[in-house]
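Field log, afternoon session.

UNIT: design team B
ACTIVITY: writing a sequence onto a fixed backbone
BACKBONE:
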């Protein structure tokens, strides 16, 4: 029986991964932070309240489960703050300890959540084999450092691993401060929404597609870093305008011709050749379909 430990099951991405893992035939063991609402939608999923930053709780958990597979998503993700938060360092320590315990208990396959912030963003087009890895934030540095150790550990301990470099995700349960949910929420409330010029091109992926991409990657035998994105560049102005037109609130959007910060490159796009050709996965939702689903969810929540 394939037994997977999913960390961060209550998070934006994690809650969408649960049905994807069930579909792939895993016995799912899911961790939630203490006090976090436990909503899984399937009685077969085994849930745990666990503070993974607590070494005693972390070690007890993995010794009890003895998973064959690990999908590690838990991390500190408070919008805007997480880029330089000291919690990133603590999560490196906890994640390394988790990886070591997983390998010592006979774990076979692990997938970790990395980030496009590991790349040198000045290149714009990000390829796993070509683009330099040169993170400029503590978040990116910590993720990339964890990747380096996990890569070597997998060779020494004999388990298979993949490192998912996730690009720009949106959808239901997204934190309200993030772009898509912030625009939708503001317009639904009848507020004026101010944006930059919106000429920046980004790689957007609907969260349900991301979830199935991660589950498919876990099920595959592909090793090393894998970009997880749509592979399609879309201007931020296009996304904002699409939302406003769907809500009939285009008059509430103001685009400001402000100069871009150095940390905001014109292009950030994933080369997804490895994802499509080796993992064998492609997204099921178009951008418009994903925006529709996100709008409908937020209308119910507000």
């Amino acid at each position: 029986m394939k037994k997977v430990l999913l960390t961060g099951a209550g998070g934006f991405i994690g809650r969408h991964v649960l049905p994807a893992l069930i579909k792939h035939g895993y016995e799912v063991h899911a961790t939630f932070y203490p006090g976090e609402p436990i909503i899984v939608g399937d009685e077969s999923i085994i849930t745990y309240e666990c503070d993974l930053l607590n070494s005693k709780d972390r070690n007890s958990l993995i010794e009890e489960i003895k998973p064959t597979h690990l999908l590690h998503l838990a991390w500190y993700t408070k919008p805007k703050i997480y880029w330089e938060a000291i919690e990133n360092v603590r999560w490196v320590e906890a994640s390394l300890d988790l990886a070591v315990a997983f390998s010592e208990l006979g774990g076979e396959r692990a997938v970790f959540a990395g980030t496009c912030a590991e790349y040198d963003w000045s290149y714009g087009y990000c390829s796993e084999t070509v683009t330099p890895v040169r993170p400029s934030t503590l978040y990116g540095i910590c993720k990339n450092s964890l990747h380096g150790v996990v890569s070597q550990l997998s060779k020494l301990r004999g388990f298979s691993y993949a490192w998912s470099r996730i690009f720009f995700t949106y959808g239901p349960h997204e934190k309200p401060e993030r772009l898509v949910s912030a625009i939708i929420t503001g317009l639904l409330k009848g507020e004026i929404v101010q944006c930059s010029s919106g000429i920046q091109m980004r790689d957007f992926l609907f969260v349900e597609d991301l979830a199935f991409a991660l589950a498919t990657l876990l099920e595959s035998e592909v090793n090393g870093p894998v970009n997880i994105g749509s592979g399609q560049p879309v201007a931020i102005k296009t996304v904002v305008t699409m939302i406003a037109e769907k809500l009939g609130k285009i008059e509430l959007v103001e685009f400001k011709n402000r100069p871009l910060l150095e940390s905001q490159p014109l292009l950030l796009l994933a080369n997804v050749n490895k994802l499509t050709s080796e993992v064998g996965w492609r997204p099921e939702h178009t951008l418009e379909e994903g925006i529709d689903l996100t709008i409908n969810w937020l209308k119910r929540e507000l």
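LOG NOTE: The mean pLDDT is 96.
NEXT ACTIVITY: expression trials, pending approval
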